[in-house]
Amino acid sequence: MSPLPSGLLGDLDPTSDRAVFRQIADQLREAIDRGRFHEGDKLPSEADLVDHYGVSRMTVRNSFSILQGEGLVHAEHGKGVFVRPRPPVRRLASDRFARRHREQGKSAFIVEADAAGSHPQVDSLEVKEEKASPDVSARLGSVRRVLARRRRYLLDGRPVEFATSFLPLDIARGTQIAEPNPGPGGIYARLEELGHRLDHFEEEIRARMPSPAEVKTLRLASGVPVIHLIRTAFDGEGRAVEVCDTVMAADAYVLSYQLPAT
Amino acid sequence: MSPLPSGLLGDLDPTSDRAVFRQIADQLREAIDRGRFHEGDKLPSEADLVDHYGVSRMTVRNSFSILQGEGLVHAEHGKGVFVRPRPPVRRLASDRFARRHREQGKSAFIVEADAAGSHPQVDSLEVKEEKASPDVSARLGSVRRVLARRRRYLLDGRPVEFATSFLPLDIARGTQIAEPNPGPGGIYARLEELGHRLDHFEEEIRARMPSPAEVKTLRLASGVPVIHLIRTAFDGEGRAVEVCDTVMAADAYVLSYQLPAT
DNA sequence: CTTGCCCACTCGTCTATACGAGTAAGCGTG
DNA sequence: CACGCTTACTCGTATAGACGAGTGGGCAAG
User: Fold this and answer.
1) Secondary-structure breakdown of chain A: helix, strand, coil percentages, each rounded to the nearest 5
2) Which residue of chain A comes nearest to B234, CA vs CA?
3) What is the pLDDT of residues A201-232, one digit of tens each?
4) HTH gntR-type domain: from which residue to which, for each copy (chains A, B) (predicted)?
5) Which terminus of chain A is more solvent-facing, meaning fewer CB atoms within 10 Å of its CB: N or C?
6) Domains of chain A
């Protein structure tokens, strides 16, 4: 409850049109931007700010909720409000599915994370046959039922990505693709062994705020959007052989693409 | 102030651990998901919900603020709270910079929007020389000063994208690239005329919540993230000849990429 | 010294109230 | 009919207070 160091935060402008709680949010944001608070630092407590500005607690909380929505800070019950640290990001290059990366036994995710010095994990493995959603059905060319492979990826214990692959039953049923462990090189290697030489991929990218279910699965802080990526894999005959629906914590990813100028 | 149609929203569960304002948000979200409220529909007013649930107004407002953060609804002062309509999306295909699209006179944005039946606009045009940021400088290969071309794109009057192109001065200075109107085919056509035949592009994609400045420029509703795309164009000699920094309203875009399976 | 409790501090939830300001419709006046 | 006012309804902002619950340090008992 010690008073705030003077000069750290300014005063309110009573003549301003800007709402008090916005002014407070502005000052905190600026202090963070200027480096007066660093990643992981604790901001002044609600009580501190109530004293400093002479406003009610709800007003201060209102300010914090703005910054939370911007993804700048996060509150921890019983501890305080902290500047949200930027987690290490995972870069996804557009050649990540190149055939040469498929030769080794381990999955691309594991190899790459190990190389980056992180501890990778894959869980929530679920493999089952199910009815195709209208969207998946359309992408796979009017299939009714599909094989769905769901898994969640974690980096150093933090969930960063949730992915589901959908494959037509006439391709996947009875093969190793339908097994929890698809073997070295993953399902793409198996698809090629089955005669579906991969020709190209199509990826659709959206960004949006997460659903409550996604917040839970990815343990997302408030103010963190998700990147929603839908990849369709085509074989040499132009047939869609897999649709992969991926939801990623946006603060953990940078996608990178190489495009020919053709 | 007429009572809510019964059955539209349920009751609270006082035995639940879940906070009251979350329960209310859950019920509203579910009602929206189930189609009881459609895009653009007005939700029950704060006063309606206060009566219906027997809670205080701040609790109801708290519920609305959750849904607002999720990008599901938006409030209009004096009118009510509405289900946020999904705006028409602009699809960006990875071949959008293909040479064949550059032959016509009009810019890709205008052509494409016209074709989609929308009314395109470009404003905030600013062209000037300035100091390169460390990031831009690194991408362009240690240049100190650059030509910056800023513009904002609007679709049917709504700002959807804000982009800045940075070009090395030794390439752009004194050419038509430094003019407000770069001529038919845009700056890429001019670059090729200047002997920089474009070889490939590299695009980096991030998603995050917008800064206050971005909220203003793009007139973003709360709960709408931005897609941040940084494209670098390389000529045949492997030199980076342009960096384009683009911030897009995420609810207005789907990015689409074709990748070879190599 | 170790264990366990208490307490101070933190954010989380909720109530009740007040006034301001934007919107739209109705109504009366000119 | 047209204009402007009133009024009711809407969300926005802010205050003051209460209790709950998670956290961590200090202190006292064993």
Assistant:
1) 30, 35, 35
2) A261
3) 999 999 999 999 999 999 999 999 999 999 99
4) 18-86
5) N
6) 20-83 (1.10.10.10), 90-256 (3.40.1410.10)
